[in-house]
Amino acid sequence: MVQTLASRLRTQSMSEHIEPTSSFLPQQTIVRRTAIARPEASQWPKHAGLFFLTFLSTTFAGIVSAADLEVPEPALSGWLGYVLYIPEYYRRLIAAVLWQAATNPALLKSGLAFSTALLTILTAHEMGHYLACRYYRVRATLPFFIPAPPLFLAGTFGAFIKMKSPIPSRRALFDIGLAGPLAGFVALLPIGIVGVLTVQPGTAPLTGDPIVFNDPLLFQFIAKLGRVDLSTAAPNSWYLAAWIGLLVTSLNLMPVGQLDGGHGTFALFGQRSHKVIGRVAFIAVAVTSVLGFIWHGSPSGFLYTVLLAVMLRVRHPAPERFEPLGRGRSTVAVITLIVFALSFVPFPIFLR
């Protein structure tokens, strides 16, 4: 009888399920847990291939950011010229970068430093989610990395995992949601420290670069402790990788939809408060973005606005059961709020 019951429990498709043992003992429950399946081996080549392509695209982006490239514009005319302009410009850009990488080892080193640092941060973020899923026996894929075109600043659109089974509890939702950004922040912290403390000092504010990166609070604190003047310094590969990592962290910690911050908000306050907080956050970010564009001419705040507008339309599923989070997770929530404050920049980029 016990062996039969155990074999039935092991074959359940759900990783965890709770039900009353009888109708007249409603408070007694049994927890049925099964070992979570390992990632499908057939998908490993896809994960590895996307990671390799993202490594190439981020290395390319790192070289572009470090090199002083002068790419001649295509001299095309007529309607065919308009159609072929972007592909031809991309061809010339790629050729210029490959030539620079082949003839200037320092540029290749900068590109590799950028891609290695950035992928370390993104991998830590996604593996935080993945390992939390494994802990709670939630079926999830390994991270999918998304390469981006050469002209995109980061060389990647980020990474994600797919969860294939329900989240069993409120605690699991909280832990899975916040494990990613906290793990990513821990990984980027030493990279950010090295990046800020090793920037090349200058004697005057930079005026030639059309893109100006606003410094998050974390960088400002590091610069103050290290007596570094970031207003006159040129960003290096480590700085850029950590800066992008902080941008990704702040975006994901927005308390909206199924973003990581949305998971944490749902676990902390429930479904109704999750919706209200998400709408308030969207309105606040939208107003801030408009004011930033009017006062400072910075359109970058709309990045948050567009993301939140999309995520507001995504329904957040409820976990299978609710239980108190406990004092420890309340402390983690406060730490996560501090991480968000250190990472968030209302207007990430200014265009001269």
Automatic annotation (TrEMBL):
GO terms for molecular function: peptidase activity. Residues 113-285 form the Peptidase M50 domain. It is found in: Membrane; Plastid, Chloroplast. Keywords: Chloroplast, Hydrolase, Membrane, Plastid, Protease, Transit peptide, Transmembrane, Transmembrane helix. It is a multi-pass membrane protein. One of its GO terms (biological process) is proteolysis. The chain crosses the membrane at residues 48-67, 106-124, 144-161, 173-197, 276-295, 330-351. GO terms for cellular component: membrane. Its main location: membrane. This is Mtp. It comes from uncultured organism. The lineage of its organism: unclassified sequences, environmental samples.
